Amino acid sequence: MRRALDNVNLAADKRFATKIQNAVFGAIRSFDPTTRDRGVKEAQFGVLNDVALGNTAGGKCRAVLQEVEFLDNPRVDVLLNTEPNAGQVRTAIARAMAGAIIDDLLNP
How many C-alpha atoms does 41 have within 13 Å on its Cβ side? Predict the structure, then answer.
């Protein structure tokens, strides 16, 4: 999510990011209760630039860049890639994201 400086719909982006963050965190936590919620952050990533997305007048285009976990952490690598239920973990994350996006579309 981009900062207010160049984000014409910061409040909507924050709500959207929070929905996705909460859903993904819950999915991961159901497999790894020790996972940490690092929360929603603001940054000026080019892929979230409202003007580049065609959102110049406070339109309804919301954007979020989700960093799921840190794969350089060996425990996370095992959880998402080599553990016997890694496929279930990845599926749960994908479903959590999809559910949050659908919820946001239905309840903006």
Answer: 9
**Chain centroid, CA 6 distance in Å:** 20
pLDDT at 2 over 60: no
Is the model's pLDDT at 94 over the cut of 80? yes
pTM score of the predicted model: 0.84
pLDDT at 58: 58
- The gap between the terminal CA atoms of the chain, to the nearest Å, is 16
- Give the closest residue to 31 by CA, choosing from 71, 98, 72, 91: 91
Task: Report how far apart, in Å, the C-alpha atoms of 99 and of each of 39, 55, 81, 85, 90 are.
Answer: 19, 24, 23, 21, 14
